[in-house]
Amino acid sequence: MSYELIESEKINLLFLTLSQMWEKINSLSQLDNNNKMILYSNQDMMTLLNVNSKLLKKYRDSGKLGYHQEQDKYWYTKTDLDHFLGKNHFPAFV
User: Are both 25 and 42 inside the same structural domain?
Assistant: First the structure.
């Protein structure tokens, strides 16, 4: 079996490339079939999560739910929703 030393520059370049690929994959996962980013409004999120506006605000204010704010409008991405649901998932008892 033979071993080859890899220069740290090449390793750093590999990690940078992998990181860029990962970012691209994440950005693509938030696009719909027309290559438009999926955004949810407050009303969409209240419907999806079956909560009222006060509880949605509590999730935002406590840092449990990520969001984007444009003036007085709040927008949520698919990643924000997936992350929130993943953090608050508990497996069934078996």
Answer: no
Range of the domain at 11: 7-31
Per DSSP, 92 falls in state: P
pTM, two decimals, is: 0.59
Chain-centroid distance of CA 92 in Å reads 24
Contact yes or no for 36/75 (Cβ under 8 A): no
Q: How many residues are there in the chain?
A: 94
Question: Is 10 a residue whose pLDDT tops 90?
Answer: no
| Per-residue pLDDT band at 39 (split at 50, 70, 90) | confident
The answer to whether the beta carbons of residues 83 and 66 sit under 8 Å apart is: yes
Chain Cα centroid distance, residue 60 = 14
